Structure formats: structure tokens, C-alpha cells
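tool=predict chain=A
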Amino acid sequence: MKHLRLTFYVSVMLPVLLSACAPRSAPTPALTAATQPTEMATLVPVPTEAPATPTLVPVVLSGPPMEVGSMWPYVDGSILVAVPGGPFTMGHGGSDNPEHTVTLSDFWIYQTKVTNQQYALCVKAGKCKVPDLTDNIGYSDVAHFNDPVTGVTWDQASAYCSFVHGALPTEAQWEKTARGPDGLIYPWGNGDPSCDYLNFNNCVGKTTNVTTYPQGQSYYHALDMEGNAFEWVADWYNALYYKTGPSQDPLGPDGSALGRSVRSSSYKSKPDQVSASTRFFDLPSSHRRDLGFRCVVLDPTYFAPLCQSIGVYGTGPAGSSSSTPLNADCPKVGIGLTSMCKAGTVRVTFTDSLSPDPNAVVSGVGSCSPVSVTPGSFPQVYDCTSSTTATITSKCTYTGGTTQCGPHYTLDGNSGMCVWDGTGTQGNQCLPGYNYDPVNQCCSAQPGTGLNFCPVGTVLGHDSHGNPVCILNGQASQDPNHSEPVLPPNPATCVGQPGGGNPGTPPPATQPPTGGIVP
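tool=predict ok
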């Protein structure tokens, strides 16, 4: 990635190979969020010939106010923050960012960078491609679910924002969010950067949870605007654009041989690289372990609410603290293999420190013969005569907290789910995997395809009753799982007593540190 400094000297701060010409693209459309709509009631007549048909619930259509400090929970578990329109000071006197006044229309922007957990929803829905896993080695690790997604190209970042009916922010929108209307040097003000405000200068040496640095929030309450990971933005990069671009809602130049603009900074950035006016650029096809993105949206009320959502257990949304620490009960699971030479089979023994364990799932034994199997109880024993991969998984359960629901939701004591109460309706659109319910005016999960997800800063877990709950990322434990390849022996090559068994791999003493993205 490149950064143009004084007198047009190009400093190769983050080396990449630049081609002679980058792909051209039409300018990204300007985004203008709707201001607070006028409240109005929508009543649907009751059918006269089919009295058994449920009627639509009368609701008040309302949206969040477009004012500083206004926040709105969005469809993918993010929080939107309002950035009211008006002039602001852009640039800070550099050769490619001279100070000038720009006026923007209203817009809403993600409070944080898009996380691994959020991006995985788009991948599961078939709308996004998996990030480069060499860049993003923590993508499938529960400890990094709320780190910024990295290893994505400009097109991958743009595809996610389209998935949530948004777009990448323009350079002007990004800079106003970071600096406020008065052109602050840093998101938190004009004081020098430190490791209390942002993840930079190798204070940590890797990406961190996007909610880790509340002291570094901007005037508009956006988090992580500097540090942790650079951010793709919508514009093509041109060093002279600030001198020639329009003063109202600038969209950037039509194209550039240098590439797309990049803003923010990373966990490796030096103190002189984290001022919010600093501009960078990279080829759209580039992907890095410290380059992510966030989105802006046109209309925060575009999507209908979920008919059911998962409550936050023991803590508030987006990481607010809990007075009582949670207790995690994670069973230890394992697999033991014993070769049966005479029979040419492998005896597979599944173990679980919690028995019975209703959350335990045994797989890979479809072609095996059960020897001693009671569903939910352990040990379970199978004989396998063909190659397979045996797997046992379970889930951690949490105690010591209570489930909290968001606004307009009430807790169903039977299912443990938060159920929409029918007030404060939004739009009528749903994410893939959901259908719009016109009676209750919310999005209902399609059987077997609904996307279970939690607010930013939390991850999916289960309470002691087996109900899904969202757990603060820092308090969540890795769900246990274990796999072993099962390879039956060739009796002709066996060594040992005829008909006897050669010991295989015993069950592990502890649960190994593996896991995957929560579906």
C-alpha cells in the first residue's frame, strides 16, 4: 500500500507490486441517509370473507433521529452511528491532502469495522467469497470472531456492503466520521496517540476486537477509526483530487493507475501515520492481513426486524459490562482407536466428561457397527471396517447471567429467544435465509437456513438449558470438538496376538484448541 507524502514523493510504507494500470470503474453513488421520517400509522382492513385470516398489526412507522449521538442496531448485528450533513474541514496541509471545506449530506456509518463473524454470514449466504486465510489466520477462531475481517480485496469489501444494502464510504464520509465537523487531528481529539486510544505501533502486534478501544471513539461515536486495520473506501486515488474535486458530496476521480484509496491505519502503523487526514492507496486486487473495511447505508430502516433474535447473556449489546462474571462449563471430548487385527476393524470409543451430554454430536460412523451406544451417554463404542473420519463435538454452556433482549423484543421463557413485539416496525426486506412475514411484519428464518448471529462484540453460545445466547467475546470459550482419521488395518500386516488388538490413540486428556465460524 502506498502513501503520498510531501512534494509528491511516494513512500513505499507497505510494499505491494503495482501494475501499469488499475481497472476503471464508474464512480460510487453518493449516499444520503433519510432524516427522521414523520410518524404515521398504517392500518390494513380486516378481510370480511375470511375471518380466520390474521390481520396485519397496526404499527407506528418511525426511524432513528439524524443527530449526533444517534445509534441504530442494524441487520447484521452492527451498530450504525449518525453523521448529520453539513460542512467540515477535510485535509491537513499535506501535498495530497490540502486543507479545504467539504459539505456532505446526512449518512449512517458502521460504528466498527466489519468483523470476521459478520463477514462469515455473507459467505454462508453465498454473497461473499472467503477471505485469504494466509492473511486472516484467525478467521475461524472464536477468539478472533470480533476482530476486523482482513485478507479481502476491494471487490470483496464492496460485495459485503452490497449484501447489507450499503456501500463503502467515500473518502470524505470516512474522514468526516473520523475527524468530526471541526477537523480534529485524531478521532479522539488533538492529543498524541497512545495504546489507550488505538491498536497501533505494535502495542499488541496483531488485530484485536473492534470494541476494545472506547477511549479512541470519534465525535460521532465511531470506534476503531484509527489503528487495528486499514480500511478500503469507495474512491479511486488521485493525489490532486482535493484541489479539483467538488465541495459537495465528492465521489473521487473516475479512475487511477495507482489504485483505490485506503484510510485509517493498522496495528503496525507508526505514530506519524495515524492522523485521520492521512491518505493511502492500493490496487483493488490487493489483500493484506491488516486491511479491512466498514460500510455506510442509505436507509437504516430498510430491513424488517427479525421475528426472533438471540438474546445477550450476562452483558449488554456491543460489550457493555456485566456485574457478574459468567461461568463456562466446557466438557472434554476425545476419541480412542484400537485396531482389531484379526477382524480388520478399528474399535472407536468416543468419550465425553459430561455424560449425559445433550449437546454432544458424534459423526463419521454411518458405515460403522454400534457396539455399545446410548444416545447422549458416554462412552460410545463402534467397530469400523472402512476408512472414515470420526468426529465428536459439543458446546460450552454458561451460567451466572441473565438473557437480555433489545428494544421492541420480549424474552420467551420457553425457547429462550427474544421475540419481536410488533412495535417500531422498519422495512420489509430480509437477508438471505429469511422470509418476510406480512402478518407480523418481520423476517422469519427459513427452516434449516436461517443465519444465527450475535451483535458485534459477542459470539454465539448456550445457556444451561441449551438455549442459544450471545456471550461477550472476552468471556466466551472455545466449543470442544475432536476428530480422528479411522484407517482399518490390513490383517496380513498386523503384528500381535492373533485375534488380539493393538492399542491405538487414547482419548486426549484435554480438548484441543480447534473450532469454526458459528453458523
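The chain has four helices and 34 strands. The chain has two domains: 1-33+58-302, 305-508.
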